[in-house]
Amino acid sequence: MNTKEIINAVAKEIEDKGGIRQVFLVACGGSLVDMYPAKYFLDSEATKLHVGMYTANEFVYATPKTLGENSLVIVCSHGGNTPESVAAAKLAQQHQAHTITLTHNAQAQLIEYASHNILYAWGNDTNVVDNPMAIILNLCVDTLQQVEGSIITLISNRE
User: Fold this and answer.
1) Are 114 and 85 spatial neighbours (Cβ–Cβ below 8 Å)?
2) Given the DSSP bridges, would you call strands 50-55 and 22-27 parallel, antiparallel or unpaired?
3) How far apart (Å, rounded) are the C-alpha atoms in residues 12 and 19?
4) Within its chain, how far is the Cα of 50 from the centroid?
5) Total domains present in the chain
6) Does a structural domain hold residue 73?
7) Where are the beta strands (DSSP E) in the chain?
8) Ramachandran area for residue 29 (φ above 0: left; ψ -120 to 50: alpha; else beta)
9) Residue ranges of the alpha helices (H) in 15-69?
10) Which residue of 28, 87, 136, 150 is 20 to 30 Å from 159, comparing CA positions?
11) What is the pTM of this model?
12) Whose CA is closest to 140, among 24, 13, 16?
């Protein structure tokens, strides 16, 4: 499944419950850094969709009150076994949120708590569009498209 197919599947699953209302970006360390472009994109372009970016521990111990069935939680952990990230994905599922996890490890614990998992390639020969930063940004662009309509229209209306 590509990012658009994943977002369309999540949106369809909850369309009768009010759709996707918030996106939470959750990770630790370098994986959290990969989320900044997506956070800044949604902060500057979204008018209805709310976005939050948290370290995994913050997400677990200062859980957003809005976390629930209308939430999309994107959790990234390169190795997929970072205890805090695994706990964050588990907590998101306990709150009926939809979780998309990203890791390069097919045996990762993180995958156990994924509504959808994206297994990415890693290494010197990997195409940049397949790295976590680009994938997370694509997920957020596709989510904004799904929730608020045409991205091109949104951007052209700013001029």
Assistant:
1) no
2) parallel
3) 8
4) 12
5) 1
6) yes
7) 22-27, 50-55, 71-76, 98-103, 116-119
8) left
9) 29-33, 36-45, 56-61
10) 136
11) 0.92
12) 24
Q: Does the residue 158 lie in any domain? A: no
SS3 158: coil
Per-residue pLDDT tens digits for 59-101: 999 999 999 999 999 999 999 999 999 999 999 999 999 999 9
| Angstrom distance (rounded) from CA 3 to CA 159 | 28
Domain residues for the domain of 37 are 3-148
Nearest CA among 71, 58, 74 for reference residue 22: 71
Segment 109-131, tens digit of pLDDT: 999 999 999 999 877 776 667 78
Tokens standing for 49? 């969709």
* % residues pLDDT > 90 (the chain): 85
Q: What angle do CA 93, 97, 103 make, to 5 degrees?
A: 65
Dihedral of CA atoms 101, 91, 110, 114 in degrees, nearest 10, equals -50
- Give the CATH number, domain containing residue 69: 3.40.50.10490
Distance CA 70, CA 18 (A): 7
Amino acid at 69: E
Residue 97: how many CB atoms within 10 A of its CB?
A: 21
Q: Answer yes or no: is 122 within a domain.
A: yes
Report the amino acid identity of residue 16. D
